[in-house]
Amino acid sequence: MSAQLPLAFRWQVPSQSFSNYIAKSNQTVYQTLLQVLDKKEELSMYLWGESGTGKSHLLQAACQYASARNQIPVYLPFSQLQHISPDALDGLETVDLVCLDDIQQITSSSPAMLLEWEQALFGLFNRLHENQVPLLITANTQVQSLGLNLEDLVSRLSWGYSFKLEPLPENCKRIILQKYATSLGLSLPDKVADYLLSHHPENLKQLIIYLDKLNYASLAKKRRLSIPFIREVLNDRFSGE
């Protein structure tokens, strides 16, 4: 495996699992993902949708699923593109699962770097396909709208399954936050969860980040989650409210 791949990219959030994933209208996506991981049919899956629809959660859960079966998963968050170079993809065909999150980020690169990324991804796809290694990819839009220039890569990314993730109903968001809080050992009362949702109702991904920050603060200060405590810890976000 390439020395360019930081260990942190192997797998980041073990608390995001299939057990605390709420599928709802994405039930078909969830069931199909399990088939890909079990190598029953296609070995690649492209998931797209707006922020907060659970794309990263599914990839992290897939990594946990693979790890629990004594397999080696690799997770690359392209939101941290500044820390990843195209040669980080070298050798990934030797692992058991490859997850590429927010792949649309490469299109913000310079034309020369975008070409390097496209060629590296094309080569990786072919090697994974040859070695029968499952590949999971997420983006904020469908393949044809990514703005890629390498037609062969667009063709490869169109292989396998492609699903748009639908946003969760409003009444499910509190449940997700509370399940995640429980996985961290936190108690998140209804009124506190509703307070968080009222300030950032559409971006669950950001709220998960807030809960991680609140968890560290709660442990350090030995305090329970409350609205005053949230205002104190997240004053950079909720100041003056």
From TrEMBL:
<feature type="domain" description="Hda lid">
    <location>
        <begin position="173"/>
        <end position="234"/>
    </location>
</feature>
<dbReference type="GO" id="GO:0006270">
    <property type="term" value="P:DNA replication initiation"/>
</dbReference>
<dbReference type="InterPro" id="IPR017788">
    <property type="entry name" value="Hda"/>
</dbReference>
<dbReference type="InterPro" id="IPR025662">
    <property type="entry name" value="Sigma_54_int_dom_ATP-bd_1"/>
</dbReference>
<dbReference type="InterPro" id="IPR055199">
    <property type="entry name" value="Hda_lid"/>
</dbReference>
<protein>
    <submittedName>
        <fullName>DnaA regulatory inactivator Hda</fullName>
    </submittedName>
</protein>
<feature type="domain" description="Chromosomal replication initiator protein DnaA ATPAse">
    <location>
        <begin position="17"/>
        <end position="162"/>
    </location>
</feature>
<dbReference type="InterPro" id="IPR013317">
    <property type="entry name" value="DnaA_dom"/>
</dbReference>
<dbReference type="InterPro" id="IPR027417">
    <property type="entry name" value="P-loop_NTPase"/>
</dbReference>
<dbReference type="GO" id="GO:0032297">
    <property type="term" value="P:negative regulation of DNA-templated DNA replication initiation"/>
</dbReference>
<dbReference type="Pfam" id="PF22688">
    <property type="entry name" value="Hda_lid"/>
</dbReference>
<dbReference type="Pfam" id="PF00308">
    <property type="entry name" value="Bac_DnaA"/>
</dbReference>
